[in-house]
Structure formats: C-alpha cells, structure tokens
Specification:
Blueprint (H helix, E strand, L loop, with lengths): L2 H5 L2 H11 L4 E8 L2 E8 L15 E2 L4 H14 L9 H4 L8 H6 L2 H5 L19 H7 L15 H15 L3 H13 L4 E2 L2 H4 L8 E3 L5 E3 L9 H4 L2 E2 L1 H12 L13 H8 L12 E4 L4 E3 L7 E7 L2 E8 L4 E7 L5 H16 L23 E5 L2 E8 L2 E8 L9 E6 L1 E4 L2 E5 L6 E8 L5 E5 L2 E5 L2
Antiparallel strand pairs: 1-2, 1-12, 3-7, 4-7, 5-6, 8-9, 9-10, 10-11, 11-12, 13-14, 13-21, 14-15, 15-16, 17-18, 18-19, 19-20, 20-21
Helix pairs in contact: 2-14, 3-8, 3-9, 7-8
Length: 452
C-alpha cells in the first residue's frame, strides 16, 4: 500500500464526517495505482442497527448509466452497433410524439442526454423480459432533439433496449456477459431476487422530526439501466479500474478497446448552465470541474440513497462513496474533496455561495409555471423576494408527492441559487431560451419548459 494511503486514516475521516452530517451509513473505496483501500461506517438501517461492511450492497443509482454506456460501447467495438444510427432503425416500437424527433434520435443522443425524451418517466412495466420494450413504447418527448442537454434517465433505458435488440439478450443478461463476468464481479446485481442473497443497505430520508427514517425501497426492472444496479464499493472500484486501465480487467481480459475508453471520456456536449458541478458530458461519463487535473465521474441518487464516483485518469486513481442517505451531499463534498486533494493533488472548486451583498434582479421575466412529466415548477415574487416551488408526482414509483419551496437568491440575470433544507450546498437555477424560442428553467440537471 502506498505511503499516502497509509498516512491517511480514512476510516476515521469517513466516520467523523458521516456522523457530522447524520448519514446513517456509508462505504468508501480508493484505488490509487496498484493499491486499494475499502472502509465502511454505520448501519444498514436505523431500525435494525446491522453494521455496514465493505461487501454491503448499495443502490448506485445513476452510476449505472456509465455501466450501460460501457455495454453499448462493447457492442460498438464488436461492430454490432453504430452510435450515429437512429434508435428507430434498431427499435420498431420506438415512437415519440414528434415523428421528426423519432427519426432523428441517435444512440449517441441517448448516451449524452440530448435526445429530448422526457427524462423522468419512471413508470414500471413488470418483471418480465419484455419490460424495456414496453417502456420504450410508452415514451413521449419534450425539447427538440439535440437542442439542449437535459438529464435523461429514460434515454439510457432506450439505449439498453437497443442493446437487447442487437445482442438478442435481455438487458440483465447482456450486462452480465459483457461487464460483470469479465470483471469477476461477485457483489453486483440488477434483480431484486438476486439482491436478497447479500447484505443490503436500506435508504433513508428525513422524517418530520428531522431524524433519519427508512425510505420505501424502489426497484423497477425497466429502470435498471438508468439507475438500478446494486453493488459494493469493491465491485464499483473494479469497474473503475477497468476504465483506468484502458478497458482491460485485472486478469488481462479486454472489456473495451483503449480508443473506446478514451472516446467515452471525451467532451461531447456542455450543459446549458455553467454553474453545475460538471462542465461537460461524455459517453456515459461526466467531466467535472477541477482546477488541476482531468476529473470524470458520475453521481447516483435513488430514493434514500446517494452514490458518488470520481476518476482521475492521469493519476490512475478512482474514489467511490456509497451512502444509504438521501442527504449525503455535504459528506461527499467534504470527504471526496479531501481524498482527491491529499492523494492526487486535485483541487476542487470552492462550493458556490450566496453573495454577501444582495443582488437586485427583476424576476418578472421568469415568473410563471414550468412543467414536464410529473414535475411542476412555479416561480413567483413576493415581498420577501423571488420564490420557487417544485412539485413532483412520484406516484409512478409508489412514493408520496414531493413539494419543496425555495428562496431564489439572485446572482445575475437568469441565474439564481437555492439550497435544500438538509444541505449547506447551494444549487443553481438557470432561466434560458433555446434556439426554437420556448423559455426553460434548468434545475437539478433538467430542462423544464414554461407553459404559462
């Protein structure tokens, strides 16, 4: 083990910072060169107190998207799939509300969140092998294809359906054959019945008394590609090491071509707001702001769990943090920032802050209602200042409706900051219009169109 890993008591730091932010449990993994460190903290559930170990499985959420992109790119390597071919060529059932959009959406659009498909369509379609086919047949579209980046869970699921058609296998089988088996993963699953054979971390949200309470488990097979993988910190590191090694597994098995790995990390498109944590989208990977090195990764969020993966390719380093808390953003910011700084010399940008002196901006041009599938965002002005309310209908996943109100803190024209009640981290809210004219609000990575 390297001197740096030995010198840092990361077990203690994980416990200290997780306790500070009242995160029930977490696992931290660090890969640096040939060395690996895995540590764990806390309980799988506040109700049972069962201890989290390094082989405990967590929901890794949208980190699954990089795994899905890896499967797609393996088929590109094999000459079975082309990124710039329209998805409808592969999928006869793929029909959006806009016929032109149906013909235009390519596999590349799906992997780079530029398809214009309604991103947060979470309806389940059973446990059968036809669940992705049925999911694809029920889609609608929102922004014009390629007009803007908007985080799209549904697009990744469509890409996975393309994999099914091209490979002739169900998604879960293709994922196992092309990724799990070559990497020797023993603590990674996609099906609920497989997860029962392992120790699982259960998700937690804030209760009415501001204490952690169990979140309802949500596992839809039709959403597995975009956010349904369940894995351990060690298996996520094995996946990350393959990407650091140019597509080669630890036993020498080639999973992806070296040029393919490099292409996945390259900048494809920028998000419409420059104030996000990341500044570019690759093929699956996101490119994160860093003042001193290339930094790629992906975050994952499920109902009551959050996961974070960062790779520093030129330092041959990866770090993963898995948590069973829906409010672990501050833990990530403090701990991962410390790990990257101490071990790789990577300087992370300072967190966004509200200005000390209030900025006077007229919110009138942005007042109104913005709506997408299951989400309504209202913006208004009152004596205390600009306000925003986000209402999210989560009935598709059996979760009560979520309503959250925010003070909009103005930064400059078209840009405001808000802060979640359980976080010290500020998030940007950007108002903008696309080339086709309609105004949008960009919040939480999603572009939501103004309707009134």
């Amino acid at each position: 083990m390297t001197t740096s890993l030995l010198d840092g008591d990361w077990q203690q730091r994980l416990a200290e910072i997780a306790s500070k932010y009242e995160v029930p449990g977490a696992a931290l993994g660090i890969a640096l060169g040939d060395d690996t460190l895995e540590v764990a903290y806390g309980a799988t559930s506040v109700d049972t107190g069962v201890e989290i170990r390094t082989d405990t499985l967590f929901e890794i959420g949208s980190i699954s998207k990089v795994w899905a992109a890896t499967v797609v790119m393996a088929l590109v390597d094999a000459g079975k799939l082309d990124l710039d071919t329209p998805a409808a060529i592969y999928l006869p059932e793929f029909q959006l509300a806009d016929a032109d959009a149906t013909r235009q959406v390519t596999v590349r659009h799906l992997l780079t969140h530029t398809s214009g498909i309604e991103g947060d369509f979470f309806r389940g379609f059973g446990l059968g092998d036809d669940c992705l086919k049925r999911f694809v047949a029920a889609l609608a579209d929102l922004p014009p294809v390629g007009a803007t980046w908007s985080y799209c869970n549904a697009g990744i699921n469509v890409a996975a359906r393309v994999v099914e058609r091209v490979s002739g296998q169900a998604w879960d089988t293709a994922l196992k054959d092309l990724v799990f088996s070559p990497l020797g993963l023993t603590h990674t699953v996609t099906l609920a019945e497989e997860a029962l054979a392992h120790t699982l971390a259960l998700g937690h949200v804030r209760g009415a008394d501001d204490l952690a309470k169990l979140a309802p488990p949500v596992m839809f097979r039709s959403h597995s590609p975009g956010g349904g993988i369940v894995s351990s910190v060690g298996d996520v590191l094995r996946f990350a090491r393959m990407h650091l090694a140019g597509g080669v597994a630890s036993d020498g098995t080639r999973v992806l071509g070296a040029e393919t790995v490099a292409a996945m990390q390259e900048h494809q498109v920028a998000p419409p707001s420059p104030y996000l944590d990341f500044d570019g989208q690759g093929l699956g990977w996101q490119r994160f702001h860093s003042l001193s090195a290339d930094l790629i990764g992906q975050d994952g969020y499920t109902w009551g769990q959050r996961a974070y993966l960062r790779l520093v390719p030129n330092k041959n380093m990866a770090v993963v943090l898995l948590t069973n808390s829906g409010y672990s953003r501050d833990l990530y910011r403090d701990l991962i920032g410390e790990v990257l700084g101490d071990l790789a010399g990577v300087e992370m940008p300072q967190p966004r802050k509200a200005p000390d002196t209030p900025v006077e901006i007229d919110v009138t041009p942005y007042v109104g209602t913005y709506r997408s599938h299951g989400v309504s965002i209202e913006v208004w002005s009152e004596r205390r200042g600009a306000r925003m309310r986000k209402t999210q209908d989560l009935s598709d996943i059996g979760v009560p409706e979520s309503v959250q109100e925010y003070d909009l803190v103005p930064i400059h024209e078209g840009l405001y900051l808000v802060r979640e009640p359980d976080s010290t981290t500020w998030q940007p809210v950007t108002f903008h219009s696309l080339d086709d004219g309609p105004p949008y609000v960009f919040f939480g990575g999603r572009a939501t169109r103004k309707v009134s």
